[in-house]
């Protein structure tokens, strides 16, 4: 294994790349504001003929994600399409009509069941749980849900996780996501169904949308993933068989502070299997 260096420009990596599958949170914005250089890089790549599909573990449908991006200043021209874990979770709900759902998550994620004839109810009556996040991610952690999860496990309720992320950036802080609750439930012996990265369905859907935009399928050796999470972005890309550009300004920023080059031992410790390249922040 060789050392791993930082690169400065996306433009140096995309010769022969026909499709980019880019993470959103931590790459394109930090939850409070867009990263102009990253938006410009993706837009420039599109202007040169490439396809950009944004893939996100947001527990909301793509149209809701798009509205958030617009509010943060991310122009529609930055990307061709969005695939969210929320979309895939909605498909699960639609495929289980009449089943009662116990929903765990903040009110802002209510679009997860919008227009689906979903039946919401208390835990005692539910057929399964949908978790889009914590009720109050400003003050809570997964441990606050242990008693509830133990009750759910006794009833053998499946938990559908609409966001496999453990944490995400909000400004300069890290907050817990649905994945933290889902992982605790799995540790307690509960059944968990994950939608989103690093699991294959979100990548498969992204490639379908890319093929629709290009008019033909794309070979995986001509696809580049971009992300800032080892657990979701890098692992998901490697599992799907595509290269990954790892952006270090996101949730792992403290681990990379002051580092210009990683030796083989550090690469193995941080990544296991290394990404194609490192970049501090996405720029053209």
From TrEMBL:
UniProt keyword Hydrolase, yes or no: yes
One GO MF term attached to the UniProt entry: phosphatase activity
Statement: the UniProt record of this protein carries the keyword Hydrolase: yes
Keywords: Hydrolase
One Pfam short name: Hydrolase_6
Domain of life: Bacteria
GO CC annotation: cytoplasm
Classification via InterPro entries: HAD-like_sf, HAD-SF_hydro_IIA, HAD-SF_hydro_IIA_hyp3, HAD_sf
PANTHER family in the record: 4-NITROPHENYLPHOSPHATASE-RELATED, OS08G0542600 PROTEIN
Protein name as catalogued: TIGR01459 family HAD-type hydrolase
Organism, scientific name: Bradyrhizobium australiense
């Amino acid at each position: 294994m060789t050392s791993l260096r930082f690169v400065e420009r996306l433009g140096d990596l995309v010769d022969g790349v026909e499709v980019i599958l880019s993470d959103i949170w931590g790459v394109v914005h930090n939850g409070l504001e867009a990263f102009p250089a990253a938006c410009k890089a993706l837009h420039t790549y599109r202007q040169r003929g490439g396809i950009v599909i944004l893939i996100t573990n947001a527990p909301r449908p793509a149209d809701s994600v798009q509205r958030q991006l617009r509010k943060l200043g991310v122009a529609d021209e930055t990307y061709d399409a969005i695939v969210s874990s929320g979309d895939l979770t909605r498909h699960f709900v639609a495929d289980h009509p009449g089943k009662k759902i116990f929903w765990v998550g903040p009110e802002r994620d209510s679009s997860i069941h919008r227009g689906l004839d979903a039946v919401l109810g208390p835990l005692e009556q539910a057929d399964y749980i949908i978790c889009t996040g914590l009720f109050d991610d400003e003050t809570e952690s997964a441990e606050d849900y242990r008693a509830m999860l133990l009750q759910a496990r006794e009833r053998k309720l499946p938990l559908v996780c609409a966001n496999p992320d453990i944490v995400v950036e909000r400004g300069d802080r890290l907050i817990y996501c649905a994945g933290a609750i889902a992982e605790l439930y799995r540790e307690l012996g509960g059944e968990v169904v994950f939608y989103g990265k690093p699991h294959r369905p979100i990548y498969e859907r992204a490639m379908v949308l890319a093929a629709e935009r290009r008019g033909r399928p794309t070979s995986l050796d001509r696809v580049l993933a971009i992300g800032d999470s080892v657990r979701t972005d890098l692992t998901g890309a490697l599992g799907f068989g595509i290269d990954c550009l790892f952006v270090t300004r996101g949730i792992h920023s403290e681990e990379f502070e002051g580092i210009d080059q990683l030796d083989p031992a550090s690469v193995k410790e941080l990544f296991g299997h290394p990404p194609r390249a490192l970049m501090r922040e996405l720029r053209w």
